[in-house]
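Following up on my earlier thread - several people asked me to post the actual chain instead of describing it. Fair enough. Here it is, all 173 residues.
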Amino acid sequence: MTADNSRRRRGKRPSADRITLTRREVSDGAAWEIVQPRCARNRRDDIAEVEAMIEAAETEIARDELVWLLSECPDFLEAHVQLGLIALEEGDPKLARGHFGRAYELCLRALEAAGGGSLPYELPGNRPFHEAAKGLVHCLLETNRRKMAADVCRRIAPLDPADPLGIQKLLGR
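Reply from S.P.:
Thanks for posting it. Predicted structure:
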């Protein structure tokens, strides 16, 4: 039995199959950038195809493709974000909340494992996290969970004080 197999049997996946963080230099010092698991990086073309399907109003096919992608790569942030957006479009904020919340939690766990720090939106790897956080706050507000939405806003505010997506402003609605 290899080390990878023993980890899988105990429920742990190799680090290449999980979200990790890498240090990057940004305008105001060092920050973390999210690194997608290998399975997600290998499926960049699939996400591009899903986006084309959505543009062509082939939402059902796109949803099926995204579900398949998540079955192969459960930590695929963009797939969770896209499924959340589809659920919102279809008027299902509870399902959307599940997908946005999953992506949000995966990133926070990786950040906590790294010891904390900032996750600025300006770094491309962090954009799915911020999009998921915005979607999550929106869904929480739509389902009358204002306190939870405020908690999410409080948690993410120091990660990128510039708040380019205007997530903090959502609470003011």
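DSSP finds eight helices and two strands in the chain. That should answer part of your original question.
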